[in-house]
């Protein structure tokens, strides 16, 4: 082996500060997260003469060299070989055996591992190093520890009688102590044998074998456990296990023990194949001890999306629950506790230049004691739109649908619908106008025990619609700032003649919600089972304010429908004689981004004849960033299933410091003078661990009192609970914040404004 020794005269080529930095780079440890990783490539500040590949360079204050045998170096010894650096006070190089021995304290780095220890033995022939009583740090990862013996060979690190942690400081919050730890430079994971896990120097778990991540890569293994307590379910503990099946597939299985109910098994499988992606979830509780009957509880969810070719795509989304109380008792990521129904759909879509087609089947499952809705099994729709010629365009919409009642096999219907239309549109920068003439032909074949439902019905209705809008704008100065203001008044006339439709069943039709944009629809109902007559004029005005960089900061709208003739068409026969007012409610919307932090959204429907508010919702939010926000909201609605609703709520997430975060929400029912939902959570986070504690109180929506063993008739029931989660950084990753707790609460968090910026 060729050894090239640099003489003591070369000491002038580096400074004492650089040598001190080299010797102390792994000794100094700060308490802050940023200080827990050593400075990279500190040893590079030492100016050494370049050596040939495979050779070594040595510097020292004194040297005793025996040709072709041994060389002894003392005093600030620096040894460099193929990217490996060693600093020590004494070193011996055996040229014949190809060995280097260093003692009296060493500092070693190979670009992957930085080590300080008592002594080192390096076998140059086998490319193997032994270090004793050493402290190590992974240079590219926030991980460190101590080892009585540390072995390096061919990109592999073997630690004996060692520790591992990602926490800074002399007393880490957690650490892994093991008889043997093995880390490979090419792997994202380490392995430990006969390991014990310690929290604040207290052993809490022994593992004969354990593998752990040293980067953010995915790895099969246990995830964080969660501990909860609920008045409905008792003490709960969930321990998820993650399976990294392949780069495009993974799965999670999580047993959940509930002291009052039993043990539930949750599972999730996710996949991604080229143009296909989806997931499948299953939750199952074989025997719910709190129920008298229907003790088997379950939820399944499937979602799949596929792009078959540029024109053809497929989508599937379905959720099923065992009983109406499932969401209230257990919650779900796929439906809210306050949801009134589950929606399931499978559809195949074709989209080309002039043609769109869809084959769809859909199903609604109502949650509660309601009449079963109809399934769409299936629906085929085809829509053709001709290209515009001098402002004119023509189209035809065709639909064929079969409906089947979920519970009554004798209730079914087939609906065929054809809707040709002719449109004209004229557009200029300052205004635009459009006119539309349609002919709606619908044929029903029905089977129902209701004698009012005819076996065969044909309905033909023309529809005419004319709409005109102006687009005005000007520059305005508010304070010292320049803005662009737009003003868009519009007017619409809609005509549809009246036809009694009470001999047609209700299969997929409901009353559409009203807002400013909804005033200018050509229909009052979704679906085709009811087409409301109209002889009405709709007018409204909308104004927006834009900053100089075209950020929309304000939008306000106001509108009303004036009925020349009263409308009589209602969903059900009992209301057929009911007519609407000649003037519908005034509808007003406002969206206002006051500044970068404050925002307001408000909408209202006001009945001028009754002098009352039909619906309103208002939300004011202060948002500093995604981790700091406060929102206050109020909403009212009248005659919702013969009930009035008035509710006020507040939601907040706030970081009190870099380590403390608080979240809370409160929703109060002013109509019934009761608390509907409340939650508070606190999280403490350090560099390497976090503790999250939360408590909640929410109204218990018992939709099946006959099956509940704990139901007290006549009294409003509440579910109270607490949750504790301990999160360890460095053994897994958890990116969820307290804002997720608000999003998963009964009413959930929503941003209050939707401006086009």
Question: In summary, what is this structure?
Answer:
Component of the lipopolysaccharide transport and assembly complex. Interacts with LptE and LptA. The chain has 757 residues and is mainly β.
Essential attributes:
757 residues, mainly beta, lipopolysaccharide transport protein A fold, 26-stranded antiparallel beta barrel, 13-stranded antiparallel beta sheet, 3 helices, 3% helix, elongated, disordered N terminus, LPS-assembly protein LptD, LipoPS_assembly_LptD
Tell me about this structure:
With 757 residues, the chain is mostly beta strands. The chain has a domain at 8-217: Lipopolysaccharide (LPS) transport protein A like domain (lipopolysaccharide transport protein A fold, Sandwich). The protein is 3% helix and 58% strand. It is built from three helices and 42 strands. The chain has a 26-stranded antiparallel beta barrel. Strands 1, 2, 3, 4, 5, 6, 7, 8, 9, 10, 11, 12 and 13 form a 13-stranded antiparallel beta sheet that branches. Mean pLDDT is 82; it is low at 1-53 and 575-580. Residues 58-188 form the Organic solvent tolerance-like N-terminal domain. Together with LptE, is involved in the assembly of lipopolysaccharide (LPS) at the surface of the outer membrane. Component of the lipopolysaccharide transport and assembly complex. Interacts with LptE and LptA.
